[in-house]
Amino acid sequence: MAVYTQVSAESMARFLARYDAGELRSFKGIAEGVENSNYLVETSTGRFILTLYEKRVDPADLPFFMALLDHLADKGLPVPRAIKDKDGQQLQKLEGRAACLIEFLEGVSVTQPLPEQALATGTALADLHSAAEDFSKNRHNDMGIESWHELSQNCGDSLADIDASLSGLVKSELAYLDANWPRDLPQSVIHADLFPDNVLMIDNNVTGLIDFYFSCTDSRAYDLAVTHAAWCFTSDGKAFDRDVSNALINGYRDYFRQSEAEIYAMPVLARGAALRFTLSRAYDWINTPADAMVTRKDPMAFARRLEFYRNPRNAVIFA
Fold first, then answer.
1. What is the structure's pLDDT at 1?
2. Which of 28, 163, 176, 208 is the most buried (most CB within 10 A)?
């Protein structure tokens, strides 16, 4: 979450008038994240999240995201639906952006996960994959391996400005993944971005899975690899937590069995996940507007994860 597009109190009040959501009491921008503009909105009837979709989100994909959230919520998963207005519409326009009002879920995002929290998250990811098995819509992963070369090219020489070693690391890893990426693993709709700040918790219980705007059709094992890279290291990527790793993987595999092919592929998929976020963070680091209310994230935190996964001795963590 972030704020790129500013919304006035007058515009917010007019927007809310489309809904049976009460009268505006207050609202404030949410700085976390990098993709869309988000506001926490409080009305006379409760709290909501207002999301304005920025350039990286294709408005043509929004019906897919809305349908997925409705499907998962119908299956009992703790995901926030987009609220329908008085005319039954979920998608709106505000300040020239596609926008929607979203249910507010209770809970907080953890900063440094405990094993018990990682276990619950692994189980929640397994539940998501199980619930998505009969979801009929598909969406191409536009942040998959094919996009990483383009991201690298768009970053250009600025990668070396971030760190002198980064250009060489990216170049060698792209070549390795092109030659070794597994393309025949079981697929479903996946979250593809299940970082700790996209999981809401109360104590050690998952109360919300949010921000599905990278969700797509891809291998389930890749989704677990993304979640592993996001959860099992300190935020700067310098230290790996084996207990959190074991808990996350066990929480997932206890409820959704991985095939031998998926387990064998996990080290390569984890390298891909680490490279994907190294590159997207590098691109955002270089291109985030100076006046945007957004917290830039250090790409080297995922370059360090990549170095960890590249070490053959560390493949045993997925066995």
1. 41
2. 208
